[in-house]
Automatic annotation (TrEMBL):
Alphabetized InterPro entries for the sequence: LysM12-like
Protein name according to UniProt: Uncharacterized protein
One MF term in the entry's GO annotations: chitin binding
Sorted UniProt keywords: Chitin-binding, Signal, Virulence
Signal peptide residue numbers: 1-24
Length: 209
C-alpha cells in the first residue's frame, strides 16, 4: 500500500522515499486509456510522455486508480489532491500522470534569469524520511531523484513555487519519492542541491556495502 507522504511543514523542504511500492487498486483510466494486461509493451501501458505534455499537470493523463499503471516501466510523475486518499482501491480518484524515460525532462523550458530587486535570505530545514520493504533500491531512487531535479528546474514549477507550496511525486521501478517545497522557495535551487546531495550520498553508501 502506498505510504502516507502528505506531511506538511511550512517553509521547509521534505523528501520522502518508499521502496518496493505496490500499487494495488481497481478502476479504469480517464483521458488516455492504458493498455490492457494483454498488451503490456513498455510504451503502450504508460500515460502521455512528460516532455510532450509539459510540466503542467493539467495537461497530463487523468487516471482514477493506480492499477493499470503497474505495467508501465518508465518513471511516472503524479499530481493529486492532498486530501484524496489515493491508496483506497474502492474509491475513484483524480490522478494526473505523465511518464518519463531518460533525460526527456531536461528539454523542458527553463526559467529565464532575472535580477530580483529585493533578496531575502531564509534558513531552510531539510527533512528526510523513508519506508523500506526489502532491499534499498538505490539505483531506482537515484534515477527518480535525477528526473525529479529536471522537473523542478522547469519554468512552470519555478513560477508556481513562487506563489504556492509545491508537492511532487515520482516513481521509478521499486522506489517512489515525494518532495515538498514551501511557498516562495526556489525550486531550481532545491533541485540542484538537496536532491543531488541525496543521490550522491546513496551512491557512496551503495559503494560501501
Amino acid at each position: 500500500m502506498t505510504p502516507s507522504w502528505l506531511i506538511t511543514a511550512l517553509g521547509a523542504v521534505c523528501l520522502f522515499l518508499s521502496v518496493d511500492v505496490a500499487f494495488a487498486a481497481r478502476g479504469k483510466a480517464g483521458l488516455r486509456t492504458p493498455a490492457s494486461p494483454g498488451h503490456r509493451s513498455r510504451d503502450a501501458a504508460c500515460p502521455i510522455a512528460c516532455h510532450i505534455a509539459g510540466p503542467n499537470p493539467s495537461n497530463w493523463s487523468l487516471y482514477h486508480n493506480f492499477d493499470q499503471l503497474q505495467f508501465c516501466h518508465h518513471t511516472l510523475f503524479y499530481d493529486f489532491s492532498l486530501y484524496d486518499r489515493v491508496d483506497d482501491p474502492d474509491t475513484l480518484h483524480r490522478l494526473y500522470t505523465c511518464s518519463s524515460s531518460g533525460p526527456d525532462l531536461s528539454s523542458l523550458p527553463r526559467p529565464s534569469a532575472q535580477m530580483a530587486s529585493v533578496v531575502e535570505s531564509v534558513n531552510l530545514t531539510y527533512s528526510l524520511g523513508w519506508w523500506t520493504e526489502g532491499a534499498l533500491a538505490a539505483s531506482d531512487i537515484i534515477s527518480a531523484s535525477k528526473q525529479m531535479r529536471y522537473y523542478l528546474k522547469s519554468q512552470h514549477v519555478a513560477t508556481r513555487s513562487a506563489e504556492r507550496s509545491t508537492f511532487s511525486f515520482a516513481r521509478t521501478g521499486s522506489a517512489a519519492i515525494g518532495v515538498y517545497i514551501g511557498r516562495g522557495l526556489q525550486s531550481e535551487g532545491i533541485a540542484s542541491f538537496a536532491l543531488k546531495t541525496l543521490a550522491d550520498n546513496l551512491r557512496t553508501q551503495n559503494q560501501l556495502r
